[in-house]
Write a structure and sequence with these properties.
Length: 51
């Protein structure tokens, strides 16, 4: 595992946590939060496996 993959593993839970916090504060709708999480997981997976 290289440094970029380790960085992705650290940043992705923080990003998902931020989406959850924004949803709980009422800033995001449920569908918007779900879309943001799916987009971030898909992007992280693509970047992780193409490194």
């Amino acid at each position: 595992m290289n440094k970029a993959q380790i960085g992705l593993l650290i940043v992705s839970p923080l990003l998902i946590g931020m989406v959850v916090l924004l949803y709980r504060q009422g800033v995001m709708t449920r569908s918007g939060a779900a879309l943001a999480v799916l987009a971030s997981v898909g992007t992280v997976a693509w970047l992780f496996f193409t490194q």
